[in-house]
Each structure stands twice: as C-alpha cells, then as structure tokens.
C-alpha cells in the first residue's frame, strides 16, 4: 500500500512538473515524518523502534504464525538482546508472565536455531537454564516466558510446535519496519 502511495505521488509529481514551469514549481521528498504527524498503527504497539501485537489467544506455533500473517506481520524475531529486553520489560510492566511464541525454531535442522522470519541464526543468549533440551525429541519451536517455577525473568525455551495441549501459547507479531515520507511542494 505504501509503495503504491509513493508511486502515485511520484507519478502525480511528474505530471505536475511536466505540465508546468520548472522555474515556478519544485517538489522535494524528505525521508521520515518531519512534523511528527500521528500515525494510526493499531492494533500494533510501538516499543522502541518496533511495532508489536500481543495475541492473547492460546495457539500452536503454526496457528500463531497464520494469525500474524493475517495482520500482514510475522511472529517476532529478536535481532538484538535490547529488543528482547524491551519486550520483556513491557510485559513485566503490565504484570504479564504468560508464554509467547516467537518466530524461532529448529524445524529445518535439529539443533540449529534460526529466526523463521529472517533466516538468521540466534545471536542472543536468553535460554532458560537447561534449554533448549528438545525434550523427547519433539521440541522445535521457541517461546519466551517464565520457563521454570523458579524463573524470575523472561527466557527462551523450545516446545512442541503443535499437537501438544500444554503448548498453546500467546504470540507476539512484529510489523515490518514502517517507512514514512514527507512531501513538500514549492510554488
Ligand atoms: Ca528441536
Ligand atoms: Ca524445552
């Protein structure tokens, strides 16, 4: 949608420029949101530089992914420890100790944990003690939560992606990075 809008503006700009004097009219495009115009990002919540949706219905990993895709987003990927901490702090601030699916899994290659959204390997070390353990050889999808009864913070763990009534978790969807432009017309 955004690309179409930009293209449409660009085409209109060409028409205006072509049909009028170059001396009299100039159109400048600027990246970003120069006047901090409010943008409606519902149902996504802005946390640091990202936009996230917290799905509160219990779903297996595949259903969670489908629900994020239906919102034109993906299950969350933690590119940095800071991003993980920001989400954990947000949940802690609202007293939320639920488990949430992420896009992480080792479905492709057992023992190799990638973010499904980006294809990148895990670079953060937020595993709960003793995890990932691939318990009974059935655990391939990664959730964040208070993993053990003794846990005092959010950490990561592998659990069965589906076919497990004890692994129906909430989920975090992450919207693609937003791009905004400002259009200034001089005349
Ligand atoms: Ca596994
Ligand atoms: Ca596990």
UniProtKB/TrEMBL annotation:
Pfam families in the record: Lectin_C
Alphabetical list of InterPro entries matching this protein: C-type_lectin-like, C-type_lectin-like/link_sf, C-type_lectin/snaclec_domain, CTDL_fold
Tree of life domain: Eukaryota
SUPFAM superfamilies per record: C-type lectin-like
Domain C-type lectin: 47-162
Keywords: Signal
Signal peptide: 1-21
PROSITE patterns: C_TYPE_LECTIN_2
TM regions (residue ranges): none
Protein name, per record: C-type lectin domain-containing protein
Organism: Drosophila willistoni
